[in-house]
Amino acid sequence: MAASSSSNRADFVVQPKGEHRVTIVWLHDKDEHFSDSVQFVKNLNLNNIKWICPSLVLPTSRNKPEYNINHALYLTAERVANLFSDEPENVIKGVGGFGMGAAVALHFATSCALNHYTINPRVVVGISGWLSKAKSLKRSIEFASYEAPARAASQSILLTHGQRDHVPHLCGCGEEAAFILREAGFRDVRFLPFARFGPIAHEINRNVMVKSWLEEKLPLDVVLAKECLP
User: Fold this and answer.
1) Gap between the Cα atoms of 63 and 209, Å rounded
2) pTM greater than the 0.70 cutoff
3) Residues 6+ apart with CB under 8 A from 114
4) pLDDT of 198 strictly over 50
5) Contacting residues for 143 by C-beta, under 8 A, at least 6 apart
6) Check: CATH 3.40.50.2300 for 11-217?
7) φ, ψ of residue 152 in degrees (nearest 5)
8) Among 7, 33, 98, 180, which has the minimal tally of Cβ within 10 Å of its Cβ?
């Protein structure tokens, strides 16, 4: 699988094995590096998907008292939108991530539903993240443009969360986030909890869940290279 970095932006691109049918921006957690994203998406081994793994600066409220997490989510979502700006129109778009990266992915997806961005991702994955707009999302969708309900309904969202993972934010996470999204009109939302059995089993568990879900939601000719098709 070919990989390349861009001199114009701090990100890493994992090129598809076959035809470029999908572009997914994958976002790392605040204590991780873009190389963690690259390793994860390579292990999924999904053909015909281009992965963009940007390097993000995600400070925490512990080391920056004046830090506003919603402001950081907004700025990072803007970056995600810019990453999609050069992608072909006929390519399926998606976004996902871990922890803070998952929070950004969900913030971006819900903002797209509200027509804040012209793009609207087909697939969205949030691993151990949270929903920043939990309290206001349903009302925002109801009072947004007439396109918002249809844009929300067209997204397929996977949420996974450790059964004992703690999220230090007063926002919806895990099963609660899935319920809030469905109530707001995001019809295709799946929540899958996973237990921790040590770091290796934990990683394999989430890899299998994400890979299986993407294979289900994306067309067969997207996840299989042409030479693999009968």
Assistant:
1) 33
2) yes
3) 140, 141, 144, 148, 151
4) no
5) none
6) no
7) -65, -45
8) 7
Residues 19-49 pLDDT 10s: 999 999 999 998 888 999 999 999 999 989 9
229: amino acid identity, one letter: L
Phi-psi region of 185 (alpha: psi -120 to 50; beta: other; left: phi over 0): left
For residue 114, give both structure tokens.
Answer: 């509200």
Token pair for 14: 């994992």
Residues in the chain: 230
SS3 167: coil
Strands 49-54 and 92-98: unpaired
Q: What residues have CB less than 8 Å from 68, skipping those under 6 apart?
A: none
CB atoms inside a 10 Å sphere around CB 105 = 30
Helix axes 69-84, 100-113, angle to 10 degrees: 70
